[in-house]
Write the structure tokens for this entry.
Amino acid sequence: MRGYACAVAITKAFPLSSLSRKQPTVLAVCGPEQNGAVGLVCARHLRIFDYEPTIFYPKRSHCTLHQDFTVQCEKMDIPFLSYLPTEVQLINDAYNMVIDAILGPETDIKSVKEPYTGILTTLKQVKIPTASVDMPSGWDVEEARADGLQPDVLISLLAPKKCAATFSGRHFLAGRFLPYDIQRKYELNLPPFPSTECLVQL
Amino acid sequence: MLGLRALLGIGVLVTSRGGGLLAQKGVCPLLGGNSPLSRECPRHQSTMAQAVKFLSQEEAQHIDEELFTEYQYSVDQLMELAGLSCATAVARAYPLDSLLKPRPTVLVVCGPGNNGGDGLVCARHLKLFGYEPTIVYPKRPNKPLFQNLTVQCEKMDIPFLPEMPSEEVVIDEAYNLVIDAIFGFSFQGAVREPFGSIISTLKKATVPIASIDIPSGWDVEKGSPDGLQPDLLISLTAPKKSARHFRGRYHFLGGRFVPPALERKYQLNLPQYPGTDCVLQLS
């Protein structure tokens, strides 16, 4: 459901009709853990919504559920890149936007190594819009970091993380699935979601 | 541009399980070329030329099986999307401000299989949408999937009745509508208790009934002239043959997860869903 809500957020932030390239291409860069898995599911739903996602998923998770997500994407005819070009212009020319599903709150920022450090360096230079899943990759979950990605759109999942307090781009809250007792327990004070929508712009 | 040509020359920029570039049906823009995807998309062709396909029971079972084996979806994933579709269809057909009773109450009757599971997910999403569902779940499979869904509903403060009200007036007075999540497309043969009595009661109720996938008790292909007559039918994945006999006001299609290759294989001719909606009104 998080991946689904993420995809809906992408369509709100970047409607098909607003894309500047002839084809509605999107590059989804997926990390090895939960954040990457959400990226895979998001890509699959974007394909159903008539976008043309391409996935870069350099380090595959060992979790069978995540492996299943990979198969589902392949079976939806979504291409997987075998490497990310370091020549940024190639990315700028080929895609309308990048989805950053690399690192999430579950990652310890100090443990991030290659290939992700290189990937982040490349993505920081792209000129096309970037949307980060749950938190911008390279940030600490509690604190923004200037050396991390600076996305145009942030799609917080379930509840915003502390680091999002200073985020100045378009911020969505996606994922309307938190049970009420958890919301009460953590005093989340989530805004109301309109009608049957699974996301709200903050 | 030298870089791009070098990538094209390599030709193995894209990897896939199928092995190599030629197996890829999708188009990666880094390889150049126009995307054939939009032009070849069967969905665009089908809305103009052909009507949506109504599935036989066997086809429905084969499609389900393929989604789990070849496409490697889990039952949880598809059930969640199906249940969400059902809740969304209910919210479209019976918006909160259209309900007649003081509270937005809904009775969800869940059967012993996957249709019941769809009902549990639907109830949970209805709660999130502001409705007040109550569940009747007399026969619960001893499997983690269903046990988990039950806990999720309990934790959302959704009450479970100890048994189905036997008098239809009780239902008519307490609830705005009933969700029939008893039997689905695998249903065959005789209806066992307590569901026989439950369906009899529902037939006498006057509040609208919304059936998930198949009106319970109907033959999946031939329908049932003296069976349940729901007001809303939410066909999941694709309508089944019995849907041709549906006489209610609202027929929705839900379960927006069919991969294009599967749609082509079974020639489903699914109509285009609007935008990012997970439901489509067929009538």
